[in-house]
Specification:
Its cofactor is Ca(2+). 29% of the residues lie in helices and 17% in strands. The chain is an alpha/beta fold. A hairpin with a 2-residue loop joins strand 5 and strand 6.
Length: 590
């Protein structure tokens, strides 16, 4: 009898264990290890350009699908309002001022493939940590974080030196110079200043040389030679900005190899999409990270014939709709391989839309909805509030909307933790793991304060007062819009960070974004009883934040951004750089 009872209980236990083992894996999201990551980043896309964020005239059904099937963030903030510093922050989880990727001058992005500035080799990207965790890591599209440091083939800033196993795309960024039919976009103010500096250094060189020869004053020949070298560098940089930009900057690389110089823009979209889908197919049997960094919707707005004239917003709308179609193609590839339930998909823009980008009556930049300002403006919401969407079926709830302050830097700890890695402990990481917020296990973001820089200049600070729900934002510096009453710096093309083009505010302009998201009605001590308390709290947090900053080499210094011929990537014999190694490939069918 006892043996019969034992046999009965043994059968029950075995049946229970067997039943548990048959439970589908996705009913227990907590035990999923090493999901795939597909990170989609648009270029210069405004938050108001997307259907699920309120646009009802530009068609973005695939991005809208991501929002329906996942989580939409309505207060997703970039760490900088321009490409280079924003992308540095995204990859490192750190404010760009910490890595030297924000500028003290007006040259706030990398200007040349042949410059020496870029993402420092000692920075640890999430790609590098995922690579160490056994992931296949790929970057397709735009980089814009530098190439070389000391010679043409050291690749110290290159994606492959920052954790990516595979790279296909532009080491630089799209500019209108890349298309022969467009007006040159290379910064005219930059050209004027380089020419001015060249003249000044020539004068200094001649003065010191004459002084040395005549004995009017004592100066070492080494000093004269150094000045002469700088004169040559500045002259070559100025001269190269006329006619050579397309060959120096508009190139395509596959890993370390230059494959198109200059790039063939008519097929760039097809090849980027082909490479993205191929990467997914090649790595479907192991964990992978794909960072698809779109060239859309940056000027010159490369758009294939299939989408030209199809939108209600001219070339810009056509370009956004084509990018949305590309998003759909990538999602279809994920679904086709049966990877959708083990793949976290993320969509965002690197910063707000470029309001001032116009040609005549044509608007070639994006729209930032109700938010004031745009690209290059470090404080106003329009420059830093971006789309942010996560989809992971079975793990993240569908159709959820989160209005808590989050940051582009939060992707860093989020993907690292999901991949089973650990964030570096030897440096400050400003991003926060978003999974508890996305899954609903917590109600509030971990961010109490977010600091909004324009270059290295702090323009504004945001404080999320969680007990009251208020989101205070203090502006210490704002750009001067021109013409008066306009919403941007149309006289310059970009709003500056300092100098005569900005206004300093003491006391700062204060807004409660929870009540006034468009920042139209500044508060004062007369209209807001908590004004002094809020400003005091923000200033205390700002001082604590500044104490965490350390002095680092400036990657965007004048010396680092000027063109240096010995650093220029070249697929021929320099300076005769020309090739088309992709020409024999069959063009991807759009």
């Amino acid at each position: 009898m006892i043996w019969q009872q034992l046999s009965h209980w043994t059968c029950l236990v075995k049946a229970l264990i067997f039943g548990l083992l048959l439970q589908p894996l996705m009913t227990q999201p907590s035990i999923i290890t090493q999901p795939n990551f597909v990170l989609l980043m648009a270029d210069d896309l405004g938050i108001g350009d997307v259907g699920c964020y309120g646009n009802d005239t530009i068609r973005t059904p695939n991005i809208d699908r991501l929002a329906r099937e996942g989580v939409k963030l309505t207060q997703h903030i970039t760490a900088a309002p321009l490409c280079t510093p924003s992308r540095a922050a995204f990859l490192t989880g750190r404010y760009p001022i910490r890595s030297g990727m924000d500028a003290i001058n007006n040259y706030r992005v990398i200007f040349w493939n042949g410059g020496s500035g870029g993402l420092p080799p000692n920075e640890t990207t999430f790609a590098k940590i995922l690579q160490q965790q056994g992931y296949s890591t790929g970057l397709i599209g735009k980089w814009h974080l530098g190439v070389n440091c000391e010679h043409r083939n050291d690749h110290c800033h290159h994606p492959l030196n920052h954790g990516f196993d595979y790279f296909y795309g532009m080491p630089f960024t799209l500019i209108s110079d890349c298309q022969t039919t467009e007006e040159p976009e290379m910064d005219r103010a930059f050209r004027r200043k380089v020419w001015l500096y060249t003249q000044m250094i020539v004068l200094a060189t001649l003065t010191t040389a004459i002084g040395r020869i005549t004995g009017l004053f004592s100066v070492h020949w080494k000093t004269v030679i150094c000045l002469a070298v700088f004169t040559l560098l500045f002259f070559v940089s100025w001269f190269s900005s006329y006619g050579f930009v397309r060959y120096w900057n508009c190139i395509i690389m596959r890993n370390h190899e230059v494959t198109e110089q200059p790039m063939v823009t008519e097929r760039t979209t097809s090849f980027i999409l082909r490479e993205s889908i191929s990467f997914i197919e090649r790595n479907k049997h192991k964990p992978f990270l794909l960072f698809l960094s779109f060239l859309h919707s940056h000027t010159p707005l490369l758009t294939t014939d299939k989408f030209l004239g199809k939108s209600s917003h001219g070339l810009y709308g056509d370009n956004v709709e084509e990018m949305d179609w590309m998003v759909g193609q990538v999602l279809d590839a994920i679904d086709k391989e049966g990877l959708e339930r083990n793949t976290l998909v993320y969509f965002a823009s690197d910063h707000g839309g470029w309001l001032e980008r116009q040609e005549g009556k044509r608007q070639l930049g994006g729209w930032n909805g109700i938010y004031r300002g745009g690209k290059a403006m470090g404080g106003w919401e329009g420059g830093i509030r971006i789309p942010g969407i996560f989809r992971w079926p079975g793990v993240l709830p569908a159709g959820k909307v989160i209005s808590e302050p989050t940051s582009l830097m939060d992707i860093y700890p989020t993907v690292i933790h999901l991949a089973g890695g650990a964030v570096p402990q030897d440096r400050v990481i400003d991003g926060r793991d978003l999974m508890p917020l996305l899954q609903g296990t917590v109600d509030h973001s971990e961010h109490n304060f977010l600091f909004h820089y324009c270059g290295t200049h702090l323009h504004a600070v945001r404080w999320h007062q969680k007990d009251s729900g208020a989101i205070w934002k203090a502006h210490y510096v704002t750009p001067n819009f021109r013409p008066l009453g306009a919403g941007g710096c149309y006289d310059r093309g970009f709003c500056p960070c300092f100098g005569e083009g900005v206004t300093h505010h003491d006391p700062p302009l204060l807004y409660d974004l929870s009540q006034d998201p468009s920042e139209s009605q500044p508060l004062s001590a007369d209209t807001e009883p908590l004004f002094d308390t809020v400003i005091e709290q923000i200033e205390r947090a700002t001082e604590e934040h500044r104490r965490t900053l350390t002095t680092v080499p400036q990657q965007l210094s004048v010396y680092n951004i000027i063109w240096k011929p010995w650093l220029q990537p070249c697929c021929g014999t320099f300076p005769f750089c020309w090739c088309d190694k992709e020409g024999d490939d069959k063009l991807a069918d759009l």
